[in-house]
């Protein structure tokens, strides 16, 4: 992890805020527990040099902060989403608020500007950041509780240096501000507007480089993170997730479960005990939560994807670049992928498979929820060794019913044209089989509940038999020919060619997988529904 401190570089513009006094209370969260999910403050962050602050302004408590006196930045601020409609804001002042109670908890109960205080600069500097620490640096005063999430006096209360940490200007103004805007819109729609209450905790991970020079008193965070909880009276509608990014210009965003964030923060903060941001992780595994999270991830990814300018994508022709963007969006917004087992190989995504039962479960979930197909494939030796994942993988592909697909309903590859109507009432294309033609799916290829066979609409009101993209491995474990994955190909069983000499073999049905299934040998059905079994060795 890279550590850094604030350098004396170039002036930044001043940020204005309200005139007037506010009150804050240091030492306990008793008066601001309402900003914590289940009234429980985050655990594992409190140290001898941290101070608990109920941020009070104009006789109201607006949020809670755990402030690190030695690093002179907040460890975190906990808050809720403010009112949706905000009237105009009143006149603002030039200086941010500071907290005199950090230096004299008994004598100075009021949050105020430095000009309104009788404390000396040395007294201010002893336990917190002050305005001059930011005035001639290359860093922004980055809100933890965003001012855009609050209204009126609640918004004014966020302009306190106990709620600010030095942030890279590009990270703060581009990456983080875009994220906050998208997050606010999604929480309003997916949580508050359906009877939920959003709870948020945003934190900064201090770096630990020596800060002896006068203008290097404040720790520049290595990472900034936010944990999100939508509480709801219906436990099935609760959801939570978290994101974390490095505080630098070329930052990357991770969207992860809250329990994973707890583990990450345990290592980043180097705390002696366990970390728990939300009690019971706030329904992080609910089904409704997964659906909402998928929508939020898609919106967040779409926002950040606009800023991606990797050199490899600049070399791609526009059509391929657009296709890569589409496929990447499908993968990145899936809630069913274990990112640790996901490898980007050129423009193919590979997911490691450790047993056939896991693959089949993964295939079915992704096929139903994500418009992705987890297509079983044997990994080349070099790929398996380099990836460190498995000798068997699945390649992630967009499903064949999506626009511009080049795979027919029964599995043939299109030749000379993509799937389309091409002057007819149904979708079709010429195929690689004797220049024949085949129907194409215009909607997802799914199992008909009555017949237990795969069918899909073809665009003219009728349906046709179809094969989902699911495997390129035969029952004997041999790979299918590159242009001929497992499918029906006008037969009643699933099969594929192994070479260009018309040698073929059976494939397991997509509704069944190679396994023991209560027998002493491995086997699977090669025909639907549950017919024509074959020995197998995958």
From TrEMBL:
GO MF annotations, alphabetized: hydrolase activity; metal ion binding; nucleic acid binding
Transmembrane segments: none
Alphabetized Gene3D superfamilies for the sequence: Extracellular Endonuclease, subunit A
Cleaved signal peptide residues: 1-24
Pfam families per the UniProt record, alphabetical: Endonuclease_NS (PF01223)
Domain Kringle: 455-538
InterPro entries: DNA/RNA_non-sp_Endonuclease_sf (IPR044929), Endo_G_ENPP1-like_dom (IPR001604), ENDOD1 (IPR039015), ENPP1-3/EXOG-like_nuc-like (IPR020821), His-Me_finger_sf (IPR044925), Kringle (IPR000001)
Parts forming coiled coils: none
Keyword terms: Kringle, Signal
PANTHER family: ENDONUCLEASE DOMAIN-CONTAINING 1 PROTEIN ENDOD1 (PTHR21472), ENDONUCLEASE DOMAIN-CONTAINING 1 PROTEIN-RELATED (PTHR21472:SF30)
This protein's name: Kringle domain-containing protein
Natural source organism: Chelonoidis abingdonii (Abingdon island giant tortoise)
Species classification: Eukaryota, Metazoa, Chordata, Craniata, Vertebrata
């Amino acid at each position: 992890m890279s550590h850094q401190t604030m350098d004396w570089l170039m002036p930044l513009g001043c940020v204005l805020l309200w005139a007037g006094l506010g009150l804050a209370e240091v030492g306990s969260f008793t008066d601001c527990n309402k900003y914590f999910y289940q009234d429980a403050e985050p655990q594992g962050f409190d140290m001898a040099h941290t101070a608990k602050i109920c941020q009070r302004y104009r006789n109201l408590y607006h949020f809670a902060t755990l402030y690190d006196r030695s690093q002179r930045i907040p460890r975190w601020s906990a808050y809720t989403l403010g009112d949706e409609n905000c009237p105009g804001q009143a006149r603002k002042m030039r200086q941010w608020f500071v907290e005199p109670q950090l230096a004299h908890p008994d004598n100075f109960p009021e949050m105020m500007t430095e000009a309104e205080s009788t404390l000396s600069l040395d007294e201010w500097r002893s336990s917190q950041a002050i305005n001059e620490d930011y005035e001639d640096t290359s860093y922004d005063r980055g809100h933890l509780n965003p001012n855009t999430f609050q209204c009126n006096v609640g918004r004014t209360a966020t302009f306190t240096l106990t709620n600010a940490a030095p942030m890279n200007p590009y990270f703060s103004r581009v990456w983080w501000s875009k994220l906050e805007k998208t997050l606010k819109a999604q929480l309003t729609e997916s949580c508050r507007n359906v009877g939920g209450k959003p709870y948020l905790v945003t934190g900064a991970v201090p770096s630990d480089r020596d800060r002896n020079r006068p203008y290097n008193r404040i720790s520049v965070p290595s990472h900034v993170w936010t944990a999100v909880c939508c509480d709801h009276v219906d436990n099935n509608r609760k959801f939570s997730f978290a994101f974390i990014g490095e505080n630098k210009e070329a930052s990357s965003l991770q969207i992860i479960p809250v329990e994973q964030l707890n583990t990450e923060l345990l290592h980043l903060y180097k705390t002696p005990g366990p970390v728990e941001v939300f009690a019971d992780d706030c329904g992080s595994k609910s089904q409704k939560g997964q659906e909402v999270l998928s929508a939020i991830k898609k919106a967040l990814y779409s926002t950040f994807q606009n800023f991606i300018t990797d050199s490899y994508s600049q070399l791609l022709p526009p059509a391929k670049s657009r296709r890569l963007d589409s496929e990447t969006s499908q993968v990145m917004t899936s809630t069913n992928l274990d990112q640790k087992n996901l490898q980007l190989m050129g423009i193919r995504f590979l997911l490691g498979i450790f047993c056939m039962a896991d693959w089949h479960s993964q295939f079915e979930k992704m096929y139903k929820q994500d418009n992705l197909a987890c297509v079983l494939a044997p990994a080349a030796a070099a790929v398996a060794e380099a990836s460190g994942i498995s000798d068997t993988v699945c390649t992630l592909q967009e499903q064949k019913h999506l626009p511009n697909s080049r795979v027919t309903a029964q599995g043939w590859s299109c030749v000379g044209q993509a799937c389309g109507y091409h002057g007819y009432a149904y979708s079709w294309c010429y195929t690689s089989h004797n220049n024949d033609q085949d129907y194409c799916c215009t909607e997802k290829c799914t199992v008909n509940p009555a017949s237990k066979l795969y069918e899909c609409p073809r665009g003219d009101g009728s349906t046709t038999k179809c094969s989902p993209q699911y495997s390129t491995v035969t029952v004997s474990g041999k790979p299918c020919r590159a242009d001929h994955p497992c499918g029906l190909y006008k037969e009643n069983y699933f099969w594929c060619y192994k070479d260009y000499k018309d040698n073929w073999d059976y494939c397991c049905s997509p509704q069944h997988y190679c396994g023991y299934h209560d027998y002493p040998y491995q086997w699977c059905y090669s025909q639907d529904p549950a017919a024509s079994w074959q020995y197998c060795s995958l």
